Each structure stands twice: as structure tokens, then as C-alpha cells.
């Protein structure tokens, strides 16, 4: 507790008895109204003791917001935080200045925008909040796109290379650059994460240090439970591609699932994405950003995250083995077990009837990409022939120039109302593969027709039927 460091204020006559009683009431189980006033009270006491106004440094101010969003008490915490910040920063006559850091832009339009709450137990805060809307005075915001302090958010490349030389690690510059470079602030690129560099200098080996230093639960939740288009875009990022879009720095957590591009704005602000280029569109007055994964460290973190989705599911691992062995019977058994256990974790539709198979199988494809990346180049929803295939597994060329695996095409299809049985849906998927010549890309890359396998996946809720094309 912050107050414990200032017990000396209770000595003497600086505080009257009522103030001393209020001081002693500050604890982990204090009332919300008292907690919201606690920093203002302490500022008052310290201002009197030292005869100077107070400077407050608040690091990662929005981390509790992330936890609240994940764990379902967003409205309550926003109400409390508004009240706390209003008394501490806006209405306090004892404050000289304050510095707040976090990934959420500080403004009444973003994290403290209007919200509706159905929660009980915060009536005191509501009354206070209605009386005074949150608005910070004399506020200056420095965001990732700001030029001010651009070289102060991390180590510059010159500083990193000098440190490598001092630690006897000359010659490792490119290795370090691949792993830890990529952060950009304003117009300044080549900014390195200090935590990762310090660990590299200490251990003298490359590794994913920063991504293991804090929880990535929010990022995982947004991608795993997100719409199919989010998983698809994430697949492109893992494949080294760029996303082109507008970015809104006003991140509002409770709008992440509904506001266009909000997820990518959050990932950019968090350091998981970097700006590879930008174009100002004169006609609209808006800027289009090209976004990619920041560096190798982040790429590996995301691969590990996807792998963890399935790591505890032996049926998924058995399905992969059955796929490689072309054992359709076993594929059906294991895939149905996987969907039964994991289907809902990839889609949090508001009602059970809204849960969609496509949310699952896009997550499933991400799992394939990570599990089989050493054997296949995996792509999905790409133009091929006269249509679009859902998933293509292109064998990687081995050292002797010979492919070690068959090429594989998968077409995923949700059962239509006019298809009485899942078998009919499977046949329709296989027919589409043939009629639209999905195999043309694989043939163009030198894979013989007899080494191309074609599977149709039919979904009806959690039920799956897999069939294979045969002449």
C-alpha cells in the first residue's frame, strides 16, 4: 500500500484527528468512495508536509482495464477509475503535474467514453460521476505516432550496437536486429525493447524475453474468439504479409469486438505490430497504414500462443497424425472429438444459435499452420483455378529437391438447408474442388496430380464429416 510508506504523517499535529482517522481507513478492503479520494488526500497531506505541490507518476494505468475487460467487470472499474482520476488529477489543487503511461490513449473520447452499466453496488460513484464528467486539464498526449520523445521509448540502434561491442558481442548485430528491432515511434524507426536487449546482453543468446514478461491474455482472447476475418488477417500476418487499414488511436476496450480495426489498433499500440508504411489519401483526408508483425520475437510469441490453443488436446494431435497418414476414418473420429471439446472456445456468440463453425475452422487452420510449418506452406482463401480454395498445404522442398509429402486441398462447407445429410455437403465440397480446378496452383508448382489429396469437410454445428475425393 502506498500509504504505508508515509506513516510519519501521523506523527505530530500536521493532520487533525479526523484526517488521521481517514488515513488509517486506507486499506485493501476500504469503501470505493474512500479509495477514489485516497490519492487526492495523500497529495494534500504531502503538499502540507513538504510545502510543495506533488508530482504523480502512474505507470501502466490501463492494465487494470485489460483485466476488467477479460474478467467481466469493465463497467464497474471504469466508473471507479473515472472517479479516482477526476479527484486525483482534475480537481486536486495539490498537483504540480502527472505523467501517466499505458497503451490506451488518455482522453474522454477513448477509455472514458460514455458507457452503460447494469451493475449494482457503485451508487456512490455514479452520483459523483454524474456531477462531474471526466476531463483532464492541460492534457498532452504522446502516442506511438507522435514525434515528440520518439527516441525515448526504447534503446536506439546506435545504443544497442554500442552495448553489443562493450559486452564482447560484436558480430551479433543482425541477429539482434532480426529478433528485437522493429518498434517505431513518430518518424523514428529502429527502436529496440530495453527488456529484451538487457536479457540478451546478460544471457548472450536470443530468445523471446519480452513476450514472457507479462500476460498476453487479452491479445489471445481477441484473436481466438474473434470473427473469422480477424483470424484470417492474423493468418496473413503469420505468413509475413502486411495489413493495410486505417488506425484509430482512441482504443475503447468494450468496443474491441464491434469497432472496425480496433483489434489491430490495440496490437499496434501494444507493440505487437509495426508500421511498415503509410499513405495519406487526399480525397478522404485519412491515412492508410501498412502493418506487419514487429519482429521475430513477436512472431514466435504468436506461434506459441496458437500452439497452446491445441497443446492440451491429444485428439487434435491424433488428427494431425491421421491427416499425414491419409487415414480418413481416423480423421473423422478425432476431428469430431476436437470440435466437441473446443468448438465454443473459438466463438463467443451472444446466443448459442449464433455460434458459427467458420469461427472454429479458421482457428483450426491457424493451428495447422503452426504444427505443420516444417512440412508445408499453408495458405487459405486464395484464388486458384476458377474459384477459391479454403486451405492448401503445399509440401516444402527437402534438401534433395524431392517433396516428402502429398499436396493437400481442404474445402470447408457448412451444411445448407437443402442438403439433407452431411454426406451431401461433403460431396458438394468435393465437387467444388474439382469443378473450380483448385489443384491448379499445386500442379503449376510441379506436384503431380496423383500426389494431390482433396478433402471435403462438412459442418453442422459441432458435427463434422470428412470425405476424400477418389476417381
Report the radius of gyration as a whole number of Å: 27 Å
Unreliable runs? 108-134, 348-354
Strand order within the widest beta sheet: 9-10-11-12-13
Overall pLDDT: 83
Q: Which structural category do the helix and sheet elements fall into?
A: alpha+beta
Q: Can you count the beta strands?
A: 13
First and last CA, distance: 73 Å
Give the count of helical stretches. Answer: 17
- Helical percentage: 40-55%
Largest sheet: 5 strands, mixed
Q: Write down the domain tally.
A: 4
Shape: elongated
Query: Helix and strand string, N-terminal first?
Result: HHEHHEHEHHEEHHHEHEEHHHHEEEHHEE
β-sheet strand percentage: 15-25%
Could you characterize what this model shows?
The protein is an alpha+beta fold and 471 residues long. The protein folds into 4 domains: 130 residues, no CATH class; 58 residues, no CATH class; 86 residues, Arc Repressor Mutant, subunit A (Orthogonal Bundle), CATH 1.10.10; 157 residues, no CATH class. About 7% of the residues have low confidence.
